[in-house]
Every structure is written in structure tokens, then in C-alpha cells.
């Protein structure tokens, strides 16, 4: 089988968050996300990914509305303070402490939503699988990684170089992924496993898909 060099891309996100993407061989994409409060990982089989990514924006209107609402509250407090400083100085301080930090965070998320993302889709139905924010400071690195990943996906030719055991392992991974993504129901998942058992040790496993 051909030797595939590992692919890596690391994205440093605001608020001490990190996204790391790794591709080992020609099987899976591994995504690792880490923040101050949680860490999580996801795995995507390469041959379920459409090799032609898109560039999308998803404007966070909820964050924009929340920021506007909170800033309006603070604005009304400032207006009251201007009219009667003695009466409204203490309430203004309290409300500013309460509302200004979340208002700034919401405003940041609203502004950040204008950043485009490179989006990879599922090859069979076009649903989004994962996306990577495209920040100006590492746009060229991301474009190169997306190109390399697309070429890696295009290079896959199943089942030519895979043994039957490798086909079964990959087929089961696909089924698990589709079940977790709720593309398959539990009944459909069980039926697919039954078809695999009936096939035994012969034939092309990928014709079962």
C-alpha cells in the first residue's frame, strides 16, 4: 500500500482555545478541540468526506441581539446618570459590572461570526461534517491544509489495496459513525451488521454499503 505522509493543522482560537486536526494514513481525520473548561475529539472517515470544501459564513444573530440589548440597558443607565448623578451613580456601577462583560463577549462572538470557515461536507447527502475558521493570520496555511486534505481524499481507491479484514474494520467504523450522527437508525445499523455477518469472509464488503 502507498505510504501517506501525516497531515497536521493547528488553529489557535481566542479565549485560550485550540483546534488541532490530524490525518494519519488514508483512513480518518482526527479533530481535537481544547479550551479552559473542556476537551473533546472527533473522528471522521476520510471516504465519507466530500473532497470539495466550501467557504461559508454563519452570522450569529443571537449574539448580536444579546449585545445590543445589554448595551441598550447600559445606555439607559448612562442617560439616567446624566440627568441625576446622585441617584443613579450606584445603580449604574452595579449594572455596568453585571452587564458590560457579557455584552462585550456577545459583541465579540457576533463580530467573530463574520469570519468565513472552510467547510467539509458528507459525500453522500451534502450535510456539514466539520468546519475550520479562516483567520487572516494563517489563511495560507489553512488553504494548503485544505488542498492537501482534498488530495488525500481523492487518492483513496477502495477496495483495491485493502484485505478483507481491513474492509470489515473500515465498514464497521463507517456504521458506527453514521449511527452516532443519527444518519442510521438502530434498526438499520443492526441490519447492516447482519448483512456483514452473512457475507462471511468472502466478497467485497463495500458493496454492502
User: Into which percentage range does the β-strand content fall?
Assistant: 15-25%
What global shape is seen? Answer: elongated
Estimated helix fraction: 40-55%
Q: Distance between the terminal alpha carbons, to the nearest Å?
A: 23 Å
pLDDT averaged over residues = 83
Low-confidence parts lasting 5 or more residues at pLDDT below 50? none
Biggest beta sheet attributes: 4 strands, antiparallel
What is the alpha-carbon Rg in Å?
A: 24 Å
Spatially, the strands of the biggest sheet line up as: 1-2-3-4
Q: What order do the helices and strands follow?
A: EEEEEHHEEHHH
Provide the structure class: alpha+beta
Number of helices: 5
Total number of beta strands = 7
Question: Mind explaining what this structure looks like?
Answer:
It is a single chain. The protein has 209 residues and is of the alpha+beta class. Helix content is 47%, strand content 21%. Strands 1-2-3-4 form a four-stranded antiparallel β-sheet. α1 packs antiparallel against α2 and α4 runs antiparallel to α5. The longest helix has 28 residues. It starts with 6 loop residues before the first strand and ends in a 10-residue tail after the last helix.
Amino acid at each position: 500500500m502507498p505510504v501517506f505522509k501525516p497531515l497536521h493543522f493547528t488553529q489557535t482560537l481566542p479565549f485560550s482555545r485550540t483546534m488541532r486536526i490530524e490525518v494519519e494514513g488514508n483512513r480518518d481525520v482526527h479533530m481535537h478541540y481544547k479550551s479552559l473548561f473542556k476537551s473533546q475529539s472527533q473522528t471522521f472517515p476520510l471516504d465519507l468526506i466530500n473532497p470539495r470544501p466550501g467557504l461559508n459564513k454563519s452570522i450569529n444573530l443571537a449574539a448580536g441581539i444579546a449585545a445590543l440589548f445589554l448595551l441598550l440597558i447600559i445606555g439607559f443607565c448612562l442617560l439616567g446618570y446624566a440627568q441625576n448623578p446622585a441617584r443613579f451613580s450606584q445603580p449604574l456601577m452595579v449594572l455596568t459590572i453585571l452587564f458590560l462583560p457579557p455584552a462585550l463577549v456577545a459583541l465579540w462572538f457576533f463580530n467573530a461570526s463574520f469570519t468565513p470557515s472552510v467547510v467539509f461536507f458528507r459525500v453522500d447527502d451534502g450535510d456539514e461534517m466539520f468546519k475550520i475558521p479562516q483567520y487572516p493570520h494563517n489563511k495560507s496555511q489553512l488553504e494548503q491544509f485544505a488542498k492537501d486534505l482534498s488530495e488525500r481524499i481523492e487518492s483513496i481507491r477502495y477496495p483495491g489495496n485493502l484485505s478483507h479484514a481491513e474492509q470489515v474494520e473500515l465498514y464497521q467504523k463507517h456504521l458506527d459513525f453514521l449511527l452516532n450522527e443519527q444518519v442510521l437508525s438502530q434498526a438499520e445499523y443492526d441490519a447492516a451488521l447482519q448483512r456483514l455477518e452473512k457475507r462471511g469472509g468472502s466478497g467485497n464488503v463495500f458493496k454492502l454499503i
